[in-house]
Fold:
Amino acid sequence: MTSFSAILDTLRSASDRHLDDLVHWLKIPSISSDSQRCEDVRAAADWVAQKLASAGLAVELITTDRHPFVYAETKPVPGAPVVLVYGHYDVQPVEPLEQWVSGPFEPTIRDGNLYARGATDDKGQVLTHVQSVCEWIAAGHPMPLQIKFLIEGEEEVGSESLEARLEGLKDRLACDCVVISDNSQYADGQPAITYGLRGIATYELSLQGPSQDLHSGSFGGAVMNPAIALCHVLSSMVDEEGVIQLPGYYDRVRPLDETERREWARLPQTDQEFAQAVGVQKLFGEVGYSTDERRWARPTFDINGINSGHQGEGVKTIIPATASAKFSFRLVPDQSPEELTDSIERHLKNVMPVGVTWELKPDHGAPGMLASTESHFAQAAKEAIRESFGVEPVLIREGGSIPIVTRFQEVLDCDCLLLGWGLSDDNAHSPNEKFRVRDYHDGILASAVLWEKIGKLNS
Amino acid sequence: MTSFSAILDTLRSASDRHLDDLVHWLKIPSISSDSQRCEDVRAAADWVAQKLASAGLAVELITTDRHPFVYAETKPVPGAPVVLVYGHYDVQPVEPLEQWVSGPFEPTIRDGNLYARGATDDKGQVLTHVQSVCEWIAAGHPMPLQIKFLIEGEEEVGSESLEARLEGLKDRLACDCVVISDNSQYADGQPAITYGLRGIATYELSLQGPSQDLHSGSFGGAVMNPAIALCHVLSSMVDEEGVIQLPGYYDRVRPLDETERREWARLPQTDQEFAQAVGVQKLFGEVGYSTDERRWARPTFDINGINSGHQGEGVKTIIPATASAKFSFRLVPDQSPEELTDSIERHLKNVMPVGVTWELKPDHGAPGMLASTESHFAQAAKEAIRESFGVEPVLIREGGSIPIVTRFQEVLDCDCLLLGWGLSDDNAHSPNEKFRVRDYHDGILASAVLWEKIGKLNS
Structure:
């Protein structure tokens, strides 16, 4: 038996312990957007730092203005590549709470799935790499490459601290490839290598009408209703097929590559299956694009929340004093969040009805990203997935955003591997978030195989 | 001294007691739309029933499926007219609570105003008539006419019980004129007789998109966002000048009478003063109409509340599963709420984007109303106001709705007097609702003078 197959055996026999670890971590409600949860966020950082330290890695908690980075590294291996594993220990908010079958921070297994906020996004997924490395070292074998971990606590709120500190951490994070597991397989039983991500830009728009709510009888018709004004300006930003109406918005959008369009057209999921999975009767979107093209490679606009006036029981016939919306754009490579903000400001100035004042607050933004599908690292990942999940991975893009990835490519001048072990119906950002227990364990194995394959490459 | 001037003296000397009474009544949180407040609503009914009974009126609490009517009457006076005083003891909801300077049910006097929910709408105003009648009888003088009181508890939720029971109460409520004080003077120091009201129709529209909130990255562009769909359909109902876009919506709208347009053009308030009073920099509205025409005699559309997705702190990049809005129309005489509902249904079927399901729930509706400005009763009201407030009233319409008034005209075949003692900045339906203490006392005097003048008319 080779030393590597001994490591794989160790990994397989430790699956109960691996699951216990994840359950412990998921119990910590590390919601980074909630200022009341700072201590919980910190506790989630401490948990994974302790886990890495107890396996013998050199660990440091790098403090920031908000939530710390957990940094850890194994010993350098001269001549072998250096891999940086990036992930996050913070999670999304949990409302609407009443839609959770079990509590978001009471991890519960049902039908082979572990349900909890953060199960797939991203505690469960990043922990696959932590486990593979910790077990490898605990088994007493030298690792064939150096692994660095950077696990942050602000991914769900825009990774601002990491953005700000990345240049300064350039030497410490130096690597040949960043490995990130924070997304999904293409479909159940069909793992993927994700070579593209959309960018993001998020905003809050607040409108102020009258100085307070007014009686809609005495004042209706003479005073602009800010909820109506908000509907008008939000409607003006996108048409009913999802085509964004901001002037120049598509100027920098790269046309899709015909090769990838052909590849994606071969992917097995039908529109009908997709519609059923999300619970809608009909899909929608830009004419001339397939569902995967629309969600992976076309820019989009979504309202994430909207709020005005009376929302309680019964009727309250008012002109509300205020109306506000949170909205976000997904960007494709070459689109700039900064240019977008300017464009929205100009557009709002043009279309905003009289009788209201308004404020646009950009929150966070990041450009999209594309990685090579032909590099040695991609080759190693294909083999690792084949050997662990038992199928050839497909090559896809993903519609979500990992804002820091493009910055890693720029600052660290490294390759990038996005290896999602989750499923698209894992309910990331939704009630009843889950991670399939089997995918967690297969992900741990695939991670170990990946280290073994990359260890054979020259740096 | 005549017996009537003795009554007036009594009224003037009892002002402290009158104010105490109102404060007691206002402390009862009789929010009719809130099913948690049923007992409070009942307590408000009991309070005024007790007040009328203790003055010797025959009082009955007429139970309904929801909140009871308080009915009371003085002795019949053969040959003299019968007047029905209509008002309501229920009040609007109070949120946003944090904007109240003092608690909505802790009546507080500041700068000569009594602040509390219901101060002007309608406890304070209807109590002026209760006080004038109770004091008149307590002073030992026979009233020169019969007064009936009908004070209900569902005015703020559409007067459904009264609508349903009105035909059955026709004989008991039989009268020559209905007197209602539930609106405003034209401006500070300029009381008015209001001869027209707008009608109303209120709705809730609910949209369902995906079966739960979705990650806007993984799904954005391929799944219709119900908040965007809602903005599109709400925008499609009205343009930016307030012109309603439903097909045929203006077909039954009466053109304004040139005489009343000339009269209203002479009213003293400028647009600048009006804008300042409501706290906006610019007014808005239909081209070709003045501010008073827009709010009194033109039909309008307002969004009263809108709700979708994430409204808490920070960013949550989702496609919300649902979006909903409460909205209302103000109607002018000859427009029918039932026809409007059909028209909205048809319009929504035409404009609703694919990928969402929807439900429209009509809440309550009532047509608009116009009364005579030349009747004997109007004449008596002009004199009563002149003698009590010291100025000639102006003749105006009002943009608000008192859904039951048109029904009184139809079923009871009676005249109608709308005598508002409040001010337009009394914040009815808003935080910091108030009623000027002086207007309350002058209203009590005017009410007594009105009984004296009407008592001299033949029935």
Remarks:
- The longest helix of chain A spans residues 437-455.
- The first strand of chain A starts at residue 58 and ends at 62.
